[in-house]
Amino acid sequence: MLLRFGKTTLFFGRRRSIAAYYCSSAVILSLGRYTTAAATTTSSLLSSLATSHQHRKMTNLTFQQIIPAPHTNTTNANTASSSSTPLPRSSHGLSIIHNGSLLVLYGGEHIARTPIHNPSQVLWLAKRMNGTEEWQWIVPTTNDAITPPARVAHAQAAVGNTIYIFGGRNGIEMGENAMNDMWMLTLHEDETTAATAKWTQINASSNDTPSDVLPEARSFHKMIAIGSNLYMFGGCGARSGRLNDLWKFDTLTHKWTNLGVSHVLRGRGGPNILSLAQDEKIGIVGGFAGEETNDGHVYGISSSDDGVGSSWEEEGMKGLEEMRPRSVCCFASLPMVNKCVIFGGEVDPSQKGHEGAGGFERDVVILDGTSGSVLENIKPSSGNEDEEEEWPGNRGWADATVHEDTMYIFGGLSGDDESPIRLNDLWQCKVSP
Q1: Which residues are paired to 196 by β-bridges?
Q2: d(CA 420, CA 415)
């Protein structure tokens, strides 16, 4: 049975719904599911559209594609952009600040293995307009000439409203020009759509002896923020190849602490790093270790500044055999709903290395927010064209960020070795019990 109400089409029998909302400067496409009885009245049907669309499994997912209004060029030379939207890219970073109102996109590659150098394309903001569901792309001004070198495959995380980036590389070859620099980005918004960016390079030190012991230069590592600390794992080292070391960076003292090499996980690039048990533990899942992996272990965080008392759990995270081995995924920890999310990723490596595109997934793996155990694996329903279209496509090498119960995803790599495709689409996924 099919009913139409203005812009909305309702499908019954298979219990699925698609709702399209049209805004003046942005379009948001919303996908979800809900359950209703065949005898539901018209008024109750309309009422159901105002409620959250529920997934039939344990976890409810609501995907929405966000299409921000284009950037409006200004006469300021520091913001004059040759484009009104970000270039398609992969191996970039994405963060969200200002209470969920400002997405910050930095770096990446538009051409395989080549960092984006164009100053008008390196840094983009997506701003939520006046608390509505309308967004706009913005190229911020820079108030001085100090900016990080262009890079691909860096790690990025936010502490409060400050964004930190570490490492990556600005050369074409894997080990070429790998970096171990730490930069801090602060952003100031005015009441319009303008914003000012300020970069500061951090002269980091170490709690170790000698004091010049710092993380090896690397790329394709991952980093998360827990409190005022950043935790970084793995990546592809300039000297040592694939790494399995864990580091802590204190953003208050600007000191690194080496938490050691994992004895339970192989070195890998593109892992997932999750905050578990209300920020008392860290989970490392998957990554590329010469092959795609689906193993995972938990690290217990101690309150000691030097990491004494912290340790890896010997037993692996449960249920990961249900997840297809993968790397370079999107991931998020959502303590509000006590769950973690892993979206998509590369499941078959490219035969052309970083010049091509391997095989990718588009599923959502749900993990318990305390233990990291896999709870379920959710995919769009096969054969339902509407649902498949309104669900992000297969991809890897993308990045994601999280605010409260919502994960945001931008771009990434899709296609195959014959036709690699870089993306510049923006999605949000609301997760609820």
Answers
A1: 141, 188
A2: 5
345-373 pLDDT, tens per residue? Answer: 999 999 998 889 999 999 999 999 999 99
Phi, psi of 168 (to 5 degrees): 95, -170
Task: Provide CB contacts within 8 A for 342, sequence distance 6+.
Answer: 272, 285, 286, 323, 326, 329, 330, 331, 364, 365, 367
Residues whose CB is less than 8 angstroms from the CB of residue 192 and which lie 6 or more positions away in sequence, other chains included: none
Is 71:139 a contact under the CB 8 Å cutoff? yes
The per-residue pLDDT for range 272-307, each reduced to its tens digit, is 999 999 999 999 999 999 999 999 999 999 887 777
Q: Compute how many other C-beta atoms are within 10 angstroms of the C-beta atom of residue 183.
A: 21
| DSSP state letters, 309-321 | T-EE-SSPPTTGG
From 118, 123, 165, 116, select the one nearest 141 (Cα to Cα): 123
Q: What is the mean pLDDT of residues 302-313?
A: 84
Burial class (CB in 10 A: 0-12, 13-18, 19+), 355: exposed
pTM equals 0.85
CA of 20: how far to CAs of 7, 150, 189, in Å? 6, 38, 30
Residue 83 has pLDDT above 60, yes or no: yes
DSSP 394: S
Rounded Cα distance between 88 and 110, Å, is: 6
Cis peptide leading into residue 210 (ω within 30°): yes
Output the pLDDT for position 212: 61
Rounded CA separation 410/427 (Å): 7
Q: What percent of the chain is modeled with pLDDT above 70?
A: 82
Ramachandran quadrant class, 308 (left: phi over 0; alpha: psi -120 to 50; beta: rest): beta
